[in-house]
Structure formats: structure tokens, C-alpha cells
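Bug report (template v2)

What were you trying to do?
Predict the complex of my protein with 5'-O-[(L-methionyl)-sulphamoyl]adenosine.

What happened?
Run completed; filing so the output is reviewed.

Input:
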Amino acid sequence: MEKKKFYITTPIYYPSDKLHIGHTYCTVATDAMARYKRLAGYDVMFLTGTDEHGQKIETKAKEAGVTPKEFVDKIVEGPQGVKDLWKLMNISNDRFIRTTDDYHVAAVQKIFKKMYDKGDIYKGSYKGKYCTPCESFWTESQLVDGCCPDCGRPVVDAEEEAYFFRLSKYADKVRDLLENTDFLQPRSRVNEMVKNFIDPGLEDLCVSRTSFTWGIPVDFDPGHVVYVWVDALFNYTTALGFLNDQYDDYDKYWPADVHFVGKEIVRFHSIIWPAMLMSMEMPLPKHVFGHGWLLLDGGKMSKSKGNVVDPYILAEKFGVDALRFFLMRTFPFGSDGNFSNELLIQTINTDLANDLGNLLSRTTAMVGKYFGGQLPAGCKTWENPEPFDTDLIAMASALRDAYESQMEAYAPHNALAEVFKVIQRANKYIDETAPWALAKDMDANGKRLAHVLYNLLEATRICGILLSPFMPESMDKLFVQIGASADVRTWDSAAVWGALSETAAVTKGENLFPRIDMDKAIAELEAAAEAAKKASLPAIEVEPQLTEQVNFDTFCKSDFRAVKVKACENVKKSEKLLKFTLDDGTGTDRQILSGIAKYYKPEELVGKTLVAIVNLPPRKMMGQESCGMLISAVHTEKGEEKLHLLMVDDAIPAGAKLC
Ligand code: MSP
């Protein structure tokens, strides 16, 4: 019989920085889901990848002095890059797409043209706000206090020629999809989308840009690049071979069964994405699931805030499986959760070291000690079961179905909770049956003891199967210890109590989840985070501080003032000098010459508020008078001298005294 198909995706990641634990969360969840479906007999396609275009990448590459492609190559393919991280985390994706891949680029161009030919994409003009120094367009709502959200400077009204997608045309259909189907989950996200975006009225979406070049060119209109979200969303179809010859699985796997995405990108996936698919007359994905965020101290992790948690450090310290497990067990998938190292260690100690680890090690140790590692034939059955025998067997036998319904509802945390109820039940069973007491009289109780231990092995096996999508490597080791052969590690066998051979060879192996010393581990983690922070800083040398003291009155004689740059130009015949015309608050322009032409272009400095000493005697440089000195910071970085003019808040008026 042909297997049922299951196509699942993660968002494709922006390779603008190293990925953190929040990104890892989503990919591990998708991986656990994909592995569960494979276990349950599905033909699974699991796609992940990277979303490599856009202004942010272009800017970052420029700052790094490399091309955008070189920049993303390093973060995607380089050491500790995206691919490395997924390998480390044992992610079983079947495919990896990069939006810079040629086949994707060509397919997106065809898609854009198709929507244009249909009349769903049209040319118009984009009215917005423009930040001249940043060369960025912003919408009114993106501004922060009316200024550029990137640099905080004033913006001006601007208009840019652009293509638009007729999103408004699909508003009713999208509303119907959200309100009347189970397309978007969890349900609470539907209300958010409808209230915030559909009710106020969907406007047509600007889908091309001309203010930067790092994007997929609109092939019929040079100068325009495709809006990065249009480019990115179609990855889910081009990676299967839609409008390209690279792959041939589109008919087989599309539509996707589910896109797992973080909550801030639900809008793109549940409004824009279905509308574009409707325009393209393509089937819609069956579900979009918007998961919550991992927070740190209640706030979102971000590189710019410097509060990201490095999955490499955690995986190395606690093991990949323990980390995967923690992420899925602790945080309800649809809600936000607060990450902390303490919580991670506590979860490992409670669930893995105490509950699962103890069950496994006590059971295998007792089979070894009392039966030499092999139970006798006939141990599976017992004529007059005690209530706790029946209870354990009933719970373990029903576990697979309970787990399945939670996994099908995209609630991996609840599926794991079901498994741990059985593990806890089994540990209680050890206390209730007191095998060590039975072992005191093997002649009288040997058969009963063997039955008790068989029940424990069997409960462990069933739990092991259902934990394997979350901790694949550790569960393989667990199966070896309890002697479970391949045929009793399967999904079908997870619903069959008694599938384990009575005489399976049991070995007490390594401790799979050693207990962690909380205080020691926390101290080590903090030291590692500190070291990583230091290592990521550029190697900077600064001049040693002077030890000779200066008299306070002497210091006060230097008159530091805020000055505003009215004009700035290169001094003719000088490679070094810039000539500044400054407003120093006196009403008369002040001229200062400064040897910083190597570091700044004159036009970059106009409008800036700088700091100058204004009571130095005038001096002549290249025949021109300089009245004062601008203050800058200097240091050496990787052998190269760097200089930054001291710039102060533009709110400080020209002439303000600095003291
Ligand atoms: N490139 C887009 C996705 C395009 S999909 C067609 C993008 N990339 S991203 O790298 O910024 O984020 C990728 C995913 O990581 C998002 O789903 C985002 O929600 C998730 N996470 C980033 N930080 C997170 C947390 N702190 N916690 C949980 N997930 C978070 O968006």
C-alpha cells in the first residue's frame, strides 16, 4: 500500500547572524514532528533552509567588507553556521533550500511574471518616508517617534516607483479561510490576525524595491528587485520543483500539511501567503501553526540586545538529546516561554536523570543482578494480577493513542507529559512491588519477580519508542540496554503490550542522563558565556592611560562645546584634511580643520553634532586657519588605526558647554 504523505516546513532563516536557541526551538519542534510522522509510517518531506536576500543582508555585508553572497555563504555553510547547527542538533531535514539557489531565483521570476500577467501585480508608486543617510524607505507605522527606526534621524516624504500585489482583492477569501476553517492554529492566532489586519482593511502590498539591489531581479523591469517575503514564501514550493527542473516532487507533496512558524511571521503565512497562492491558483497548505517565542528575562532574544543563548554551548554541556527534550517538554508549543539555565538543568534532573534514568537503570540493574541479564521464558503472564499490575499495563497500553492525539494537535509538550505519566507510574510500581524484597526468596518469588521486571522493561520500551522522535540517539541506546530488537521499536509495536521478547538480553549500560550539579553547571555556563562574548569582540588596543595627574583648575580651562556641522569639504591638495564650517552657538561660524579625511566623507558629517575645544589658539594648516579642535576616539583594531569623531545627541544645542 502506498504510504500517506506528510510535508512539513520550518521558516527559512535569515543568515544575518549566528542562530540562537530560539531558532533552534522551531527547528527541533519540526524535526520531532517529522520523526514522529516517519515513525507512524508516513512518507515525510521535511524542508528547511535560508532566506538570503534583502536590505539587511546587503547592509551587513557592506559593513563586513564582503559581497552579500560571500556574507551569507559564511553564515550558512561556514563553521558553526546554519547547516552545522542542524547537523549538531540531529535535524533530519530531507531538503535544504537557499533562496540564492539558481533554480529558486528563476522560479520566483516566473511566479512574479505570472501574477503580473494575470493583473494581480501592477505598477504604482510607493509613498512613504525616506531616511536619506540610511537610504531606507519606511512606512508611517514603522517610524519611531516620527524618526528613522534604524538611526533615529528625521525622515522626509518620498515616493518610489514600485509593483503592488492586489492583496485587497483576496481579503474576503482570506477572512473566510481564517474564520471558517482550521487553517491557522492555535485558534487564538486567528483572532489576532482578523482583528489586527483584516478588520482594518487589507491594503495592496508593495512587492518590489528599487532602493537596494540584493534581491531577485524583476526580469521584465530592471532596477526592481522582488520583495523578500514574496521570494521567501515561495520557497515552500520551489524546493519541491515548482516551475523548475531541480526537483520533481511538487505534485507528490504539495500542498504542505503544515508550516511551523514563529508568531511574528504568522501574518505573512496566514494572510499574504494564501492570497498569493490563490492568485497563482495553487492549492493552499492545510495548516499554519504559529508557535510562541522563547523569552529571556521576559523579553525577546536578539543579537542587538546581546541576550542570545548559544545552542552550541548548551548542547556541548548537556548533550543534544537533553537539550532537544527540554525545549519540547517545557514550553507549551503555542505560547511564549521563559528560558533559563536553571529550568533547563531542573528539567534534565527531574525528568531525565530521576524519572527516566532511574527507571532504566534500576530495571536493567535488577534484571542483571537477579537473572544474569535474561528473564526466564513465561515471565510475560501472571494469573492473578495485582491492581497495580493492571494499572501499569493499562496505562502503557493506552499511551500510544493518547500521545498520537496530542502530536496530531501539534502539542508535543502534552504528548511528552503523557509519556512521563507512564514513566512515573512505572517508578511507583517499583516501590509497590519492592523487587528487592521478592528477591530475598527466589524459590518462592522468583517467577513473580521476573514478571514484575518484564512489566518494567515493557513499559520502558513503549515509552522509549514514543520518546524517540525527541531523543533519537539516546533512545537507540535505551533499546540496546533493554534488549529491544528492531521489530519491537516500531510504531505498531508501541500499541502492543507484551511485544518484547521474554528472554531479551538486558544489559545495564552507561548512565544515559547523569544528574547535573546545578550550582557548578550554572557557574560554568556563565563563564562560557563571558568567554564567548570576549572572543566575539574585535581585538582592540587602546593607548595606556596616563598616570600623571592634571590639576582640576587646569582641566577646567579647556572649553568643550557642542558644535553643529553646517558644511564640510576636503581641503584642496591635502589628502588628510577636512574643513568644517561649524555653528558653535555664538552666531558667527567657526572654522576648524581636522586630519580625518581618511575616515569620513565630508557629506556624511553635515548635520551632525560634534564636540570641539574652542579656546585653543588658532593655527594655520595648508594656508587656512583652524580655530579649535574636534574631539575623536582612537584605537587600533587588528593592527589598523581607527578613529571615530565624538558625536553627541542632536537634541544638544550648538554652543552647549560640556563639562
Ligand atoms: N526569514 C524569515 C522566515 C521566512 S519563511 C518563508 C524569518 N527568519 S528568522 O531567522 O528571523 O526567524 C526564523 C524563525 O525563528 C521564525 O519563525 C521566528 O519566530 C523564530 N524565532 C526567532 N527567535 C525566536 C525565539 N526567541 N523563540 C522562538 N522562535 C523564534 O523570520
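What did the reviewer find?
The first strand starts at residue 5 and ends at 9. The domain at 552-645 is CATH 2.40.50.140 (OB fold (Dihydrolipoamide Acetyltransferase, E2P)).
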